[in-house]
User: Fold these one by one.
Assistant:
Number 1:
Amino acid sequence: MKKTISGIRGIFGKDLHLKDVIEFSNNFSSLIKSQKCVVGRDTRPSGKMIQETISAVLMKNGIDVFDLGMVPTPVVFREARKYGAGIVISSSHNPIEWNGMKFILDGRGINEKELPQIINHQEILKSKIGKIKKIESTYIEDARKIIGNIENSPKIVIDNGGGAAKDFAATLLKNIGCDVEVINKELLGCSRGPDPTSDKLIELTSISKDKEIAFAFDLDGDRLVVVRKGEKQTPDATLGLGIAKSLELGYKKFVLSIDTSISIEKFIKEKGGTVVRSKVGEANVIEEMLKNNSQAGGEGSSGGFILPEFNYCREGILTSGLISSMLENSKFSEILNYMESYFQIREKVEIDSNYHDKLIENIKNNLIKKYSEIDTRDGIKTIIDENTWILIRKSNTEDIIRISGESNDEEKCKKIINNTIEMVKENYEKIK
């Protein structure tokens, strides 16, 4: 089972059981000051059982439950702004047998200070039994106000991946003026896996060659992958297009995770914007946004565009609408062409987590001697030159060291990544 600020996740029935769901729901109750909580789930088979269990615990603790049913993660975040708290039942892009819980307070995910209170047992003093009420979200209407209407009815294909975005994404795009075709609407018989960032999306790339654009969502609708003219784009491209739209809307202050493409940062600065970098992870980006009163941003590795005025989470559905509104705009091709001049590689090396900290420290000491610009806020990011960087960071949930790199020279990028992998392996052999 994984327990992080991104949520509780595990294989349901193996390392995540209903007793765990009961305990975490009980503990989260102690943080809900409004005594109201929105609950929604994605399409995983175990979702309904978990949702019913969560609702029962919350009501036992005197909290009123507002049931959204099967909805994407961004919808729960949006409605949680109104009610004070929310729980998403999902394991995002993980395999179907997984499930989990994501906790929302005041419209944002929990932070590192709040996580222990959810993990550690809390005694709840209750004065009443909460009620449950089914509610409908105003998400589509709210998103439409930001995006506006699109002319010329662009032809768009949505690969739902059997996830919870199915009705929301298609309805939103149709309502703003798009001609929409949907594939893989249901989980049963879906032609691909739950994570569009790692899947080849063979059916979508094939069917969308003569369409203006295509979108693929993960199971809970917060991750988005763009397919253009039958070619799958990088997750950074999704974020870059969201950023380009933000600049078009007049936004100037951005937060990007430290593993996001340098091309996006350069694009922002060329257009007169400013960039603050954060640690990797949705929650870390949002924390930095709140601290700096930033207007937009996200993390490139997950294609996660975030627009705080609308939602404090990755926004796959809203982003698909924002990107669609740019199709006849020169900035659309401009950002894609800009990003195509850079090459990103993301790899991982299996390393026992007991050695992660020592390994990172050893590598840091070696790199400090070699390079003058080192960022250690989240692993080790080495700035090799103005167009080239490498990031080595530990996984908080797996026996993995993640290695990311980028350059405007493809061969240079490959060489640096390969050399870094060898360096990590050599240091591991020395210390284990």
Note: The chain has a mean pLDDT of 94.
Number 2:
Amino acid sequence: MFKLKPAHGALFLASALFAGSVYAQTVKIAYIDPLSGAFANVGEAGLKHFQFMAEEINKRNLTGGPKLEIVPFDNKVSPQESLNVLKKVIDSGIRVITQGNSSGVAGVLIDAVNKHNERNPDKSILYLNYAAVDPDFTNSKCSFWHFRFDANSDMKMEAMTDYMAKDPKIKSVYLINQNYSFGHAVTKAAKEYLARKRPDIKIVGDDLHPIGQVKDFAPYVAKIKASKADVVISGNWGNDAALLVKAAKDAGLDTTFYTYYFGGLGVMPSIGAAGEGKVKQITEWHANIKPNKTEKFANAWNAKYGGPPQNLSYYFLRVNNQMYMLANAIKQSKSIDPKAIALKLEGMKFESDTGEVEMRASDHQLIQPLYISTVAKAYRDPKDPKTAKFKGTDKEVKYDLEDTGYGFKTDARIEGYVTAQPTSCQMKRP
């Protein structure tokens, strides 16, 4: 299914029992993400996916020996709690961590891992980032010990604004984002890139709201409605995305949303039919891409967990890439030492389900294709009891989200070399 191409490249994991290049029976990976609170559904979905992938890799012996084990830790999306968790991880002997939800968390983890590794070169920690997309992490704050498997927010905004710039009907934009590093990055990039590509587009609103604390977005939606913006750009994720679209639906807001994570869990049930043709997202994958090479994976997922497989898996293709690349790095290095794995990860090329991806050696940013897609009615097949209740006629929209009858349809595919941007990374190497 996957073809791995040798190169410098590597990924994460470590175990309490490693020494040099000697394999351990089990390599433990600390999963540090929210398992309680407002974003628990997102964290739990990610945990299931990582556990599933570890099982698949173990069954196929893709590491060449060591088993992979995911060890969950609840950080409550708190930077301070994440530091407390990291100490527990280190004390337990785990030498590889993965995290993705919140760039605020990712920033403190990068700094803490760097300091730990400087003090303890023989007990180094490898940090595999699957979703925290602040561009600084592969620019001014880049680290030898950090690898990012999602496109950073500037890469996504570059692709998104290229697409927007071709639409002459867009004359005004409203920005609404979470008030932390990622939300600031989205806002900054949107203003800069639109000014460069379409200086005629006016920014008619710019809101930053507390992350995970707003219970009712009606006041924000009222401001958006009053602005008469043609487009809303939002990097909101998790419950903040679901509540925003719910408020938009309740208010009858008739505008187009360009988003990063509105395909995430809980969002589609909140907006349903109101999102048709109005909600767009930019992602590394969605359930209805063509050609769809992920259906085999989706079927295996469905067999294990039941229910529509894309509910939990479509959004996390980057997890597949990360885990397969990690396994290959362990196999190539014949080691579970974090430094050895990292050296194999650098430059690694991997044939993913959407085409070739590459872990850029200079900054540890994965270069990959991206997709812009729009909410559409899922295809109705009267002969299939799973889809007979749907309303769509477009056979390209085969999968819906969370049994809503609505899924995403591709507007554009943007190749990795187009989204790749220069890096200012001056990496300090061990």
Note: The two ends are 35 Å apart (CA to CA).
Number 3:
Amino acid sequence: MKLTLKKTIVVLLPIIIVLFSCSKENESEKTIKFWAMGAEAEYVTKLVPEFERLNPGIKVKVQQIPWTAAQEKLVTAFASDNTPDACQLGNTWIPQFAALNSIIPLDEYVQTSDRINQEKYFPGIWETNVIDNKVFGIPWYMDTRVMFYRKDVFEKAGYKDPPKTWAELLDLSKKIKAMYPKEEKYAIYLPTNEWAPFVMFGMEAGSSLLKKDNTRGDFSSKEFKEAFKYSIDFHKLNLAPIGISQVTNVYQAFAEEYFSIYISGPWNIPEFKKRMTGNLSDKWMTAPMPGNANDYPGVSLAGGSSLVIFNDSKHKKEVWKFFEYLSQAKTQIEFYQMLNNLPSVKEAWDNPIFRDDPYMQAFYAQFTNVRATPKIPEWEQIAFAKVQQYAELAARNVMSVDEALKSLDKDVDRILEKRRWIVEEKKKNK
């Protein structure tokens, strides 16, 4: 019996040593959990091996979550104390998670980093991540909206260069419409189920969109009313199709000159390149948004995705190293080549892949004048549910501009009722 036991110990000893060694090795290795959405998760995974090579002892586990369920999944994870170490967030989502106290301010990391600081980013993009003077996210990639237009149609209408002012855009649109007196064709596509252009015009006119600490709608203001009337006039003057059902295929409609101007984002560059081929390949271009006065480019939206760290993470320093890696110009260019997501760091734009691409010049120029929408959790509900609704009603003459905006403000005030109460309580407790 003793002999058998001795033999067993001899046999098991090497195994025990190996297991102990592995245990000690795993203890020294730190794994950070990073959640990313859709295709971003698939492609960022390809960047991880190089990071792990450069940072021995740190592993990155990427989990893919679908865009359609991302916000709900993140809120659920927070409620159940099961958040990852870090995550990709649409920059309009940051106010919600900052309000929940689920993500941490990153100021102390930014202040000591030689790779991530405000000067490396476009001001409007960086600002989307700042709430109450604290930085809650680092821009990962960015987007905005510019004009996609038919160069050949513009030239026929007497415009060698794209319009730089609202007045020029309206004048050009009228001239384009006049070119097709007997055809059902238009100048510009401003679908009422896309809230962005209406809001962009409003911000360009000087509207804050909301007032009183973002607790009430300000859409009836002189500034927004001017912009809203301007954009709705394109529909009333028959310069833009009203119903979205009239355009079943944007690219085909653009190719057939059903409209010659479309306000859209960088995600459409590959699509237009793919579909505008043959004799159409050199007949389209991009241009920044026109301004209301002397400013050019005019205002566009500061969109994109940011990197955030969750409060409960036990590997914050390791996550920050990963963020610094993702924020290098080289890494962002590589990511762009995989997925066409525009790099957030200005240094990356010096690369010929952007500098020599004529379609990208408009985006680079536009990023110098982009602005964040109101940084409150309720904004998406306001934009998608209400701005679009009343744009549709005004475009169809169901409501006048004044009626639509007054009703919009009333609806927004109802949405913001809880926010007003919170703000008032905070003031009382000061």
Note: Residues 191 and 244 are 6 Å apart (CA to CA).
